[in-house]
Every structure is written in structure tokens, then in C-alpha cells.
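Thread: quick sanity check before group meeting

JM: Hey all, I'm pulling together slides for Thursday and realized we never actually wrote out the predicted structure for the chain we discussed last week. Dropping the sequence here so it's in one place. If anyone has concerns about the input, flag it before I start.
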Amino acid sequence: MNWKKMMALGLAAVSMMAFAAGCGSDTKTTNELPKKIVVGLDDTFAPMGFKDENGKLVGFDIDMATEAAKRAGMDVEFKAIDWSSKEAELKSKKIDALWNGLTITEERKQNILFSNPYMKDKAYIIVRNDDNSITSKESLAGKVVGVQQASSGEKALAADPSGKLVKDTKAYADFVSAFMDLGLGRIDAVIADGVISRYLMTKEPGKYKIVEGVDYGSDDFGVGFRKEDTALRDKFNSVLIDMKKDGSADKIAEKWFGNATDLDKADAK
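JM (edit): ok, ran it. Output follows.
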């Protein structure tokens, strides 16, 4: 699956939505859209949103949100949050949106109002390149597996029969720490989304690999808003459709995912 297939599969089929009322951190009314939107994110989630070597916040979702907010006539502020407390941060109005490779799930829909999906991905098993003992979900039996706390991968492993076979599941605040422990042999595998896995693998070529032919299901990424902020959600749905139609979303994807040769190989199962 290349980035063109990953990008905005739900957007093409969605009709343009009317929008009116809105809500945000700087307005108490429901009949106005905010002048600024505060986006919450995990700032270690490369390549979606992370700090580069100069401490600057960069990433695919950063570029997408910046362009979308500009088109919506809003300023945008990015705020690093504890990702495991993301729903509480949103509900308390410390932030107005979650835009950081957020997987749309039925459970999350209970507390979050989602935009239309703008990207697809899968959760994979990642192991050290010299480890040939893990070739399937079943071979995770007796192994120590790392996940990001409160991630879709953590929930997928817990819900899968293989989750009952593992020796232990270790939850990390971020995937960078999980991969570090994997490289040091402190854990045997990591369950992570393909986009972040492949990005982190490029930082240490030849050190890790994705277990071929195995995944924990497909994920749809969406932007999360407060349940009552339907107008704000509808506004960004409209903008994201325009970005897909005029090719700007694809240009941002090409910047961060390139020709996606590895994505083609990994997902063509």
C-alpha cells in the first residue's frame, strides 16, 4: 500500500458538508467558529508529529493541520500532551483537537467526535533484524512485547488471542523508548503502526524488521474533536476534502513518505 492509497480514502467519497456553529478554546458561543485552534499531540510520534534535531515541531500531521487551519481562517497552536490522557485534555478544553495519527475506534467514538478518515495504516509486529524466532502472532508466546500506552496497538494485542500467550506486555510513554528497549534486548517485540515503525527503522538501518505477513488489523486515522463541536468538525472535513481534491494533501504525503517503496512491499500481502 503506497501513500496515495493510504491518504484520505474516506475523503473522496464524502460529500461537501455545510458548516455553521463552532466551538473552541477562545469562544463560549456555539454559533461561531474559533479564531484559533489548539491541537494536542504526542510530540514523539514521528513522522506524524515530533521535534527535529533543532527542537522544532515537524511532521506529516503538523503540515496537514497547519495548512487546514490556514484554509479554515484560523491560527493553530500545537500543544504536547500526555497521550494516555488525551480524552481528558480534550474534554477539559485545554485543547480543541487531537491530530496525531489518532486511530478511529468505536470505543473512542463514545467520547470523541471524529473527522472523516484521512489515512489508513496497519499495526505490525516489529522485532530485531537478527531474531528469527517470531514469525507469527502465535510465536509471541512466552515473549515480552512492548506497546505504547493507550495506543490502538495495545488494545489490539489485548483483544487478540496472542495477547494471552505473551509472557508480559510492557507499556511505554512513546514508541521511541519501546524501540530503544527492543534494540537493547529488554523486550522481544513491539506492536506499532506501520508509519512510525518504518520511520524509526530508517534511523537505524538493518537493526529492526517487520514480521512479514502478520498484522493486527487496519487503522483509520482521523482528527478528534469534542462531541459538541460538530461545526468545527464539519469545517475541517470540508477543508480536508479540498486539500485532497487540489493535490495539496498528496504533496504533504510525498514530502514525508516519499515514493513509499517500503510501504508497497510491506502492505502488498
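AS: nice. Residues 8-30, 259-269 have pLDDT under 50 and may be disordered. Residues 122 and 217 are 6 Å apart (CA to CA).
JM: adding both to the slides.
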